[in-house]
Description:
By secondary structure, the protein is α/β, with parallel strands linked by helices. It has 2 domains: 26-363, Alpha-Beta Barrel (TIM Barrel), CATH 3.20.20.70; 366-489, Immunoglobulin-like (Sandwich), CATH 2.60.40. 21% of the residues lie in helices and 23% in strands. It has helices spanning 2-12, 14-17, 60-66, 95-101, 122-132, 152-161, 224-237, 288-300, 339-358, 360-363, 448-451, and strands spanning 40-45, 71-75, 105-109, 138-145, 170-174, 194-197, 246-251, 266-268, 274-277, 280-283, 305-309, 366-372, 385-387, 393-397, 404-411, 414-421, 427-433, 440-446, 461-463, 469-474, 484-489. The strands form 4 sheets. Strands 1-2-3-4-5-6-7-11 form an 8-stranded parallel barrel, surrounded by 5 helices. Strand 15 and strand 16 (414-421) form a beta hairpin. The longest helix is centred in the last third of the chain and has 20 residues, at 339-358.
Amino acid sequence: MRRSFIAIACLLLAASTCMAQANAYSSWSNFPQQNTFIPILLWLQNPGYSMGPGAPYSSEIAAMTALKINTILAIDYGSGASTPTGTCGTDPSGYNADYANAGIYVISGTNATNSTTDNGSVYCIQQIFSNLGKSKYLMGYNLGDEGPCESATMGATAITAQTYDTTRPFFCNMQAFLFSSGSDPSNVMKDYGIGSFDDYVQINGYAVSYGPILSPAPTRDILWEQGWQMYENVNTYGRGPTSQPQFLFVEGGNNALGASSQNGSTCTSGTPPLCSQGGTNHYFRTPAEMVNAEVWMGFINGALGLEWFADDSNSTAAGDPNNEVAYNFSLGSNASGNLTLATAAANNVLYIDTTLLNFAPEINSAIVDTCTMNTGASYSSYNTSCTGSHGVLTMSTGTSTVPGTAIVKNYNGTLYLFADTDRYGQANMTFTLSGYAGYKATVVYDSNAQYDPTNSSVGNTFTLNGTGQFSDTFGANSHNYQPKIYMISSGGPAAPTGLTAAVN
């Protein structure tokens, strides 16, 4: 009876029984409403940026389209300026038209006013897209990044700005405030339509000042911070999982404009290239499998959108005085003189974006239950088990040093369990789904299918015992922070909806 009650309640009474609406964007009528849509964003770019000689894509827009990046988060109109200028309703350099004509959504920079003369106002931005006949491609408005977004003044501005257009969300991005970088936005973050934070933990030269110093090789064990920050953003600092979507910023196999070399870090070539700071190592560019793990960690902890920061350090490409090529490193540009690495990063972006979109209906479905073994912002802050607040999900680890996180969603009456480990190492994770005794858990996604196909568990099935329990191994063969997705079914032949093979 428990299963029938939850399935019906999640489908019909999401607000009272499940932890999130099936459509988190329903209050914004001009936001894409289809459940097959995952917002995949690219930060602050220009459609005229060069990709460099030999790049696999002819332009930035061609790359975005091929790599399934469907939204531009702020347009760079020159020198990093992201707000339209000129006469109200005019499209500076035709950049908005370039993106909209390619079917790419635009989150426009704005000065958060409703002036009828200032082209950066909400009113004038609407006029730009109306004049283009492309209003459907105006997704929302970007209020700013990091520092300005953490002030009470901006919080008040956000509340006012959202009265100018109630049909589209406003965006504002925070720093990694949980780890002493930036201000605590507890009184501010709830004022934004959609929140996010950026913290490139794998390559951050400053991370030793606020992260764990542990090096099981090749780097310190720090990726877990991404998941914990997203969990706190969703459940503590925002409006909570019932009303405010949270998006996740990640690096894409690039060095985030030299972030890995900051704070006196010494970087050397190798396999993989590493940097050293404070006696511990961090990546120069995060390897593909860890980028994937970082993305899934965000979604398992409640993220509903992905934001790529594609920039690398200064380009060495000939004829590139403005370093334009470097800004598109993760899109396959010939940046930093290394087309091979950039192309590999782009292929990984394609794999991740394709996987997310394949699982979009499940990701966008109502949350049945969620739990994390993490308990705080220090390396040792975790338990060896967790129980969801709705009493459906319990998760425990067989390795005391390797905690985990999981979330259960209901898609058309079928449960999907998303899970990962949250420290380096291997662990046997045990899941209990109360009321689902005798059901089958089928692995419909395992990151090994892409990064180590020989050890992929896709298609493996587990029968839940009399208490609704099954166990599976995570992190074997050095696949740390391994994400998996299970479809929970009554034993019929229903096929997985996600990827079952590698994307190359």
